Amino acid sequence: MYNFAYQRPSSLSEAIQMSEKAEEGLFLAGGMTLIPTLKLRLTSPSALIDLSDLADLKGIRQEENILIVGAMTSHAQVAAAPEIRNMLPALSDLAESIGDPQVRNRGTIGGSISNADPAADYPAAVVGLGATVQTNSRSIDADSFFTGLFETALKLNELVIEVCFPIPKRAAYIKFPNPASRYAVVGVMVAEYEDDIRVAVTGAGPNVFRVPEMEQALGANFSPEAIENISVSEDSLNEDVHASAEYRAHLITVLAKRGVAAII
Amino acid sequence: MTMKVTLNLNGKVVSADVEPRTLLVQLIRDHLGLTGTHVGCDTSQCGACVVHVNGQSVKSCSMLAVQAEGMVIKTIESLAATEVLHPMQQAFKDHHGLQCGFCTPGIIMSALNLVAINPSPSETEIREWLEGNLCRCTGYHNIVKAISAGAKAMKV
């Protein structure tokens, strides 16, 4: 890997200042994607700004009907948190399905969504649960956070602080994992709220997306049968060595049905 | 430009001057001379480099040495201070849990993290936990048996 300067701020404001001053700085969260990317020399930042001392960015809390997860909370912590298991078990299941134990011990929710890997799991939770992403300067709605392949609405020197998940009546995350990497070939989050139903798909397209036809059909009749004839066009879906676009389109409907079946 | 990193390695406070890009596994092997921790894939998939960082299993090829500043690191060398093996090591010997042995240190460190969380893991739980460890001799069956036996022996 190319060399870089290493900085370890002790406060959020210091972290932002370091990023502003760096010629080409990158925030380092868990490093589970960034460090392998550096090793492959796919990126060469002038400085890495390690967020691991920012205690304010770690932890889980509940405010009324909102579950708030700090950006530097690890997947293992989300998977093990009793309050998440009680209030939003779909999120526990999702976190527990990421990578392997060592990846879950280091990887963080903030890092995952900022990286916006098309096959990552957390984007399905952010969009499927209609979360709000809180940064150091503003709140971003889930529907406008992910903007493309590895692209988000985050601006230069902007940092995710926490993710706020409204607690649904019921929700399920079902994924078809790549057997080697455990990345989602396709993953679907289905969630029912008092006045809203959301279906979000990760792994299938350049970035996470909702399926409005399924959401409407489930609004009229919350059952697997209601969506069995609804499919997403394969035209805009990913095609790679792991799965064809046609197969991914098929999986979306199958997994969405399983998600609904899991919670009725 | 190098930076000084000080950490607790297997109960001893040690320091080294490293570049920011030095990986934790390079610090352990090349700077501090403990070669029990292996580098298999170097792409954070195989788990041969698993060590404990503040009690949690971590792939040391995917963490920077400078990130370990002030942390407690345990490697395979910490398990048996004398000729007497740790119960998990003994179980791997008894159950033929290793063939070439290359993946073994990482698997044992990973297994000890599992046992710390779950003292009586089922076969399914052991197999799921080993998602991050590859054995290219494909000796998983005996590895699973060894971890199960090791976990039982650790309770005695």
What does this structure look like?
The complex is a heterodimer of chains A (264) and B (156). Chain A is an alpha+beta fold and 264 residues long. Among the domains of chain A are: 1-53, Uridine Diphospho-n-acetylenolpyruvylglucosamine Reductase, domain 2, CATH 3.30.43.10; 170-263, Enolase-like, domain 1 (2-Layer Sandwich). Chain A has helices spanning 12-21, 34-39, 75-80, 82-87, 89-96, 101-106, 109-115, 122-128, 142-145, 212-220, 224-227, 245-263, and strands at 5-7, 25-28, 47-50, 60-63, 66-70, 132-135, 139-141, 146-148, 151-152, 160-166, 170-177, 184-193, 196-202, 209-210. Chain A has a five-stranded antiparallel β-sheet. Chain A has a four-stranded antiparallel β-sheet with strand order 11-12-13-14, sandwiched between helices. Chain A has a three-stranded parallel β-sheet with strand order 1-3-2, covered by helices on one side. The termini of chain A are far apart. Chain B has 156 residues and is an alpha+beta fold. Chain B folds into two domains: 3-78, Roll (Ubiquitin-like (UB roll)); 87-155, DNA polymerase, domain 1 (Orthogonal Bundle), CATH 1.10.150.120. A five-stranded mixed β-sheet of chain B has the order 2-1-5-3-4, with helices on both faces. The radius of gyration of chain B is 15 Å and the shape is globular. The model of chain B has no long low-confidence stretch (mean pLDDT 96). At the A-B interface, helix 2 and helix 6 of A face strand 4 and helix 3 of B.
